[in-house]
Design a protein that fits this description.
about 150 residues; two-stranded antiparallel sheet; CO8G protein; mainly beta; about 50% strand
């Protein structure tokens, strides 16, 4: 049910990179493919320095339904991924936890989701102790997701 194309609509995280570069956030398109009926292959396309980059990840299944493990290099780089809520035809909210750090991502089948879905996302963000100060949205502009930039004259 999760297979197919998704758009990153919002993200909540204490990630310092996001805080420092939020004015440069651009489109992120993800293609999810269910492999062997259990694991997920994630292909992320991102525009960076006027070039498109593809990042491939493999989310391994765990014993619990809706939970995956993303392994990196070394024992300390394991990330637990949990499907928080999903309407596979509309949106999915994923939790990412590495150690004590947690972040949430909101994906939509289209680049814009309803206010009701945004409200669900924001409720989950608050429930894990994150705030609007660390919540970022990718709005649509000219076919790409961007954050509105403040212009000073």
């Amino acid at each position: 049910q999760l297979s197919g194309k998704w758009f990153l609509v919002g993200m909540a995280s204490h990630c310092s990179y996001l805080a420092e570069h939020s004015h440069q956030l651009e489109a992120t398109t993800v293609t999810m493919t269910v492999l062997d009926g259990q694991s997920l292959a994630i292909s992320t396309f991102r525009k960076l320095d006027r070039m498109c980059w593809e990042i491939r990840q493999h989310y391994l299944p765990t014993q619990a339904p809706g939970r995956f493990l993303l392994k990196g290099e070394g024992e300390c780089s394991k990330v637990d991924v949990v499907v928080g809520e999903a309407d596979p035809s509309n949106f999915i909210i994923l939790y990412y936890q590495k150690g004590r750090s947690i972040s949430l991502k909101l994906y939509g089948r289209t680049s814009q989701v309803s206010d009701a879905v945004v409200d669900k996302f924001e409720q989950r963000v608050r429930a894990v102790g994150l705030s609007e100060d660390v919540t970022y949205y990718f709005s649509t502009y000219g076919g790409w997701h961007t954050v509105l930039r403040e212009t000073r004259v």
